[in-house]
Design a protein that fits this description.
32% of the residues lie in helices and 21% in strands. By secondary structure, it is α/β, with parallel strands linked by helices. It has a 7-stranded parallel β-sheet with strand order 14-15-13-16-17-12-18, sandwiched between helices. A 6-stranded parallel β-sheet has the order 19-24-23-20-22-21, with helices on both faces. Helix 17 links the parallel strand 23 and strand 24. The protein is elongated and about 85 Å long. About 6% of the residues have low confidence.
C-alpha cells in the first residue's frame, strides 16, 4: 500500500494512504506525490526537526503513530528540501517509479469516483467499524473482510481508518521494524524473512506468520487500540467471587474444583498475579474450573480470550463455553473456519489466530501451554503477550507443565494452583507396558490380542509417532480387524474434522492418529494404545497426555492405556511416575473414589 505526505497551511504534516484525506478530514491542503510504502517514507522523514506547531492543533490532528515525529512547523523551503530528499531516496534505492516528485493541491477532483464522502459522516457506521477493529491489528489481506462486513469500498474503509488514526485511537505501522541491522515483523516478532527486489527497492517477506496470510515490507498494519468505553459499569471484584449461586454451570463442582477455583480467583483478583499456572491432572476439568474467573471478568465488561495451540481443542472447548455462557455470542477463530470479524467479549482461538490481535484482552486463558506448535515457538508466545493488555493477566492450563514454566514458578514469577484429581474422583489410569517390536510376524498376533481386550471396553485410540505410520498401521489394522471400522488421520488430513466427529459419535471403532488427539479431547469409554511408545518423538509429557485420554467421563471413569514398545525409555518411566505422583497428591487431599 502506498502512503503520501500530507501538509497543512500551518506546517503540520501526516501520512495517509488517501491523498484525498484533506477533503475528507479537513485542513490538509496539499500532498507530496508520488506515494511510497510507509516504511520508505519514514526513512525519508527520519531526523526532521522536532518543533512544536505555533498553534496547538485540535485532537483530531495529533500525530498518529509513536513511530512518527511530532508535527513540526515547516515552511516552503523545508517542503522543497523534503521533496528533494524523497527524490534522492528513490534514486539511491533504484526504485522503478518514474513519476516526478512534486507537491499537489487537494481538490474535489481528488476524490475517487466510487468514494462517497457521506459514508464517513455516518457516525453509526463509523462506530460499527470501531467495534469491529478494536484491539485488532489488520493486515491488508484482511481489509476486504471488513469492507464486506461494513458494506463499503476500499477507499471508504481507508477513510474510516484514517479518521481513527487522526483521532489518536489508531496507528499505521510498516510491517517491519529495523533494529540495528536486523528487521523484525511487527505482527509476529520474527526476524526470519526472505529478501527480494521490487519496484520500491529491497523488500522483505516474513516467513513465520504466513499461515494467517503472507506479509511483506511494502505493506502495513493498522492497529486500533482497545479503549474503555466512557461510563461503562465497573463491578466490585468482591461481588465476583467464584460462587455458583451467581451462575449455574453445566457441572457441579467437586471439593477439589471449588478449592482450585477459589485459589485461582484469589491469585488473579487479590494477589494480582500477572501469570498463574493451573496444574491439573488429565481430565480434572481445568477448563470448567476457570468458568467463575471468566464470569467475574465478563461481568466487569472486560474481554476474555481462551486460546489453545490446536484446532481440535478449540473446537471442543467453544461449545462448552457457549453452553455455560449462553448470553454471549462466543466467537471461534481457527484455520478451519472463515475469518470472523464480529466482536465478542469472549473469544476462543488457536494461538496462530491470536497474532491478529494487539492489546485486546484483559484475561487470556492459555490451554495446553506445553503442546506443539506453541511450545518452543517464540512467534506464538510473542502473539499471546502482544494480544494481552498492559494490565492484563494470563492463566496457563496444563497437565504436563514444561521445565520453563516450573522454573518461573520456582522463582516466583508465576503463581501456581494445583488440581490433582479428576472431577469424578477416580485416579488417572497408570499405563501398562507391553513389549512388542511390531513386526509382521508373531508380534501382530500379540498386538491383536491386546487390542481385542481393549475393544471389549470401548473404542480404541491408537497413537503412532509419524504420518507415515498412521497410513501404514491404518491399513494393517483394517486387515487384522476386517469386521470393525478403522480410520486414521493426522494434522494436514483434509478429512480430519469429519473423521474426529465420527469417532466421537461412536461410528469408528479404532482410530489411528498422530498427536492431534493427544490433548483436550474427551471421548466416552475410549481406550488407548500407544504404538512405538519408545520412539524418540515421544517425551514424558506426550505419553502422559495420551494415557490421559482414558477414563475421563463420569459415565466411564476407568479405562486402560497400553504402551507398546521394543526398548524401555526414560520418558516411559517418567510418564508413569508423573501420573502416580498426581494420584498420590489426590489421595492426600482425600479426593479419590477408586
Amino acid at each position: 500500500m502506498l502512503f503520501y505526505i500530507l501538509a497543512k497551511d500551518n506546517g503540520e504534516f501526516c501520512f495517509s494512504p488517501l491523498p484525498s484525506a484533506g477533503l475528507i478530514l479537513g485542513g490538509w491542503t496539499r500532498y507530496l506525490s508520488p506515494g511510497l510504502p510507509l516504511g520508505k517514507l519514514l526513512a525519508v522523514t527520519a531526523g526532521l526537526p522536532d518543533k512544536k506547531p505555533t498553534t496547538q492543533p485540535e485532537p483530531a490532528t495529533q500525530p498518529f503513530s509513536p513511530a512518527l515525529p511530532s508535527a513540526p512547523v515547516i515552511d516552503g523551503d523545508f517542503e522543497n528540501r523534503l521533496a528533494q530528499k524523497l527524490t534522492n531516496c528513490m534514486k539511491k534505492e533504484n526504485m522503478g517509479v518514474q513519476e516526478k516528485v512534486q507537491w499537489q493541491d487537494t481538490s474535489r477532483e481528488a476524490l475517487p469516483e466510487a468514494f462517497n464522502i457521506e459514508v464517513l459522516q455516518n457516525e453509526t457506521m463509523y462506530q460499527k467499524f470501531l467495534r469491529i477493529a478494536e484491539g485488532r491489528q489488520l493486515a491488508e489481506n484482511e481489509f476486504r473482510i471488513v469492507e464486506k462486513e461494513l458494506g463499503v469500498s476500499t477507499k471508504e474503509l481507508l477513510g474510516f481508518m484514517q479518521k481513527a488514526v487522526q483521532s489518536g485511537n489508531a496507528e499505521w505501522l510498516p510491517i517491519f521494524e529495523q533494529v540495528r541491522s536486523r528487521y523484525f515483523c511487527r505482527r509476529c516478532g520474527s526476524s526470519h524473512y526472505e529478501e527480494w527486489p521490487s519496484l520500491y527497492g529491497d523488500t522483505y517477506t516474513c516467513l513465520d506468520c504466513r499461515e494467517i496470510g503472507p506479509l511483506n515490507s511494502l505493506q502495513i498494519l493498522f492497529r486500533l487500540h482497545s479503549v474503555d468505553v466512557p461510563g461503562q459499569t465497573r463491578v466490585d471484584t468482591d461481588k465476583c467471587k467464584p460462587d455458583q449461586t451467581v451462575r449455574s454451570y453445566s457441572l457441579e463442582f467437586t471439593f477439589a474444583q471449588e478449592k482450585a477455583a477459589e485459589e485461582l480467583w484469589q491469585q488473579v483478583h487479590r494477589q494480582k498475579a500477572q501469570e498463574t499456572l493451573l496444574w491439573a491432572a488429565c481430565g480434572a476439568g481445568k477448563t470448567e474450573v476457570c468458568f467463575p474467573l471468566i464470569d467475574s471478568f465478563l461481568r466487569q465488561n472486560k474481554k476474555v480470550l481462551f486460546a489453545a495451540p490446536r484446532q481440535d481443542v478449540v473446537h471442543d472447548v467453544q461449545p462448552r463455553l457457549q453452553k455455560n455462557f449462553p448470553e454471549y455470542n462466543i466467537k471461534i477463530l481457527s484455520g478451519a473456519l472463515p475469518q470472523d470479524m464480529e466482536p465478542s467479549k469472549l473469544t476462543v482461538a488457536t494461538t496462530h489466530q491470536v497474532l491478529r490481535f494487539y492489546r485486546a484482552f484483559h484475561l487470556i486463558i492459555l490451554d495446553e501451554t506445553d503442546a506443539y506448535p506453541y511450545e518452543g515457538s517464540s512467534v506464538l508466545e510473542y502473539g499471546i503477550r502482544q494480544a494481552l493488555r498492559p494490565d492484563g493477566q494470563i492463566i496457563c492450563l496444563t497437565a504436563t507443565p514444561s521445565a520453563e514454566i516450573l522454573l518461573r514458578v520456582k522463582s516466583q514469577k508465576c503463581a501456581i494452583v494445583r488440581l490433582p484429581v479428576r472431577h469424578h474422583g477416580f485416579p488417572v489410569p497408570v499405563p501398562e507396558w507391553q513389549k512388542n517390536k511390531l513386526t509382521r510376524d508373531r508380534s501382530l498376533v500379540e498386538l491383536k490380542k491386546v487390542l481385542l481386550k481393549l475393544i471389549a471396553d470401548g473404542p480404541i485410540l491408537v497413537f503412532v509417532p509419524t504420518v507415515a505410520l498412521v497410513k501404514e498401521w491404518t491399513g494393517v489394522l483394517k486387515m487384522v480387524f476386517g469386521d470393525l471400522r478403522v480410520e486414521g488421520s493426522w494434522s494436514s488430513d483434509a478429512a480430519r474434522r469429519e473423521k474426529t466427529v465420527l469417532f466421537r459419535q461412536g461410528d469408528i471403532n479404532i482410530f489411528v492418529c498422530t498427536s492431534i488427539l493427544e490433548r483436550g479431547i474427551t471421548i466416552k469409554g475410549v481406550q488407548v494404545a500407544v504404538l512405538f511408545a519408545d520412539h524418540t518423538l515421544y517425551d514424558a509429557r506426550a505419553l502422559v497426555q495420551m494415557a490421559g485420554r482414558t477414563g475421563r467421563s463420569a459415565e466411564c471413569p476407568v479405562g486402560r492405556a497400553v504402551f507398546i514398545y521394543a526398548e524401555q525409555t526414560q520418558a516411559m518411566i517418567q510418564a508413569n511416575r508423573w501420573i502416580q505422583d498426581q494420584n498420590r497428591l489426590a489421595e492426600e487431599w482425600g479426593c479419590l473414589n477408586g
